[in-house]
Amino acid sequence: MTDELPFPESLCHRCIHVRIVRSGRGSGFVMCQEPTLPKYGPQPVRICRGFTPKPA
Ligand code: SF4
What we know:
The protein is mainly beta. The chain is built from no helices and two strands. The site of iron/sulfur cluster has 13 residues, from loops.
């Protein structure tokens, strides 16, 4: 079990659309909930048209 963020450098972690999905074994997956983008696109994301910053 690990609490480490998958792809910690990914832009997604600063975006309101991200959800981190944990498997039973503790692996983490970056899931995008922006409806027009793939749920599990290539990581790490560095630039994204759907990026919406989380409030500070
Ligand atoms: S909208 Fe873009 S930056 Fe935001 S979670 Fe989805 S893929 Fe990541």
